[in-house]
Amino acid sequence: MNDMNVPKSDLKAPQTVLDDLAAELEVLTPELRKAASYVLENPNDVGVSSIREIADAAGVKPNTFVRMARSVGFEGYEDFRQPFREAIRSRGTDFPDRARWLQSLSKGGQLGELFAEMAACAISNIENTFAATDANAMKAAADAIVNARHTYVLGVGVNNSNARNFTYLADMAVDTIWTIPRMGSVATDDLARADKRDVLLAMTCKPYRTDVIEAVEVAREQGLTIVAISDSPASPIVVGSDHAFIIDAETPQFFPSSVSTIALLETLLAFVIADAPPDVVANIEKFHTRRHAMGLYQEEWKDRS
């Protein structure tokens, strides 16, 4: 089994590998049993540790792990740990384990693999997100935003900058879109005067933020239209929302990827501008003309020496 040629879909699940290993325990030699026991008790170490590191931790020689891997049908330790490494790349794994995996790539001189994985994830996330979205759904959400008295854009943690960027760009054209929570405030307080004339655009991915979930619940009780962006149809902010967009946030990183969220928000903003009254064009032109007049833009490099 060569991990470079085995499709992800053909990899055994880590739990299946552990079950196979447990079934072999009684027939293994004492040294192999020692290695196997360490794996069964510390499965998270497999995907993030080199063969030397895990052998030192288990108190055996590195070759013992090679023989242990072969005892359950793998060609060697690298093949054996591939399912565990793939699990670390997946959403369900703890972020600290992902960070350890990233460092293991650096130690093993495998940063080229990391580069390729990051690029593949970014492209795949965008493709999958847009494949699961259609123009009609995007237009319906844009209509709600354009027709709202106010639109509150909520993102915290890694999504806070995404929310603020959406508002920053939208503000060039319309003045009804605000980011929450405001400085020194909490989102639920910022929604105190909101009602059925308003929209809440909220975003969160696993692990879902409690403050975002609570704000969505408050907004729903107050009659706001909910536009939700999340990574699962079962997300607490998606269930019961008026408009929902499911994004792919797959990444080998230790936090959800923002690539597809940003792409989706840029597309939503384009639909908002396309759907808005004609005066938005004049607003955008006035905004940029003013910036040029104030010297905030520089078209070409100038030698200031």
UniProtKB/TrEMBL annotation:
InterPro entries: Homeodomain-like_sf, HTH_RpiR, RpiR-like, RpiR-like_SIS, SIS_dom, SIS_dom_sf, WH-like_DNA-bd_sf. Residues 15-91 form the HTH rpiR-type domain. One of its GO terms (molecular function) is DNA binding. The keyword Transcription applies. Keywords: DNA-binding, Transcription, Transcription regulation. It holds the Pfam family SIS. This is Transcriptional regulator. The lineage of its organism: Bacteria, Pseudomonadati, Pseudomonadota, Alphaproteobacteria, Hyphomicrobiales.
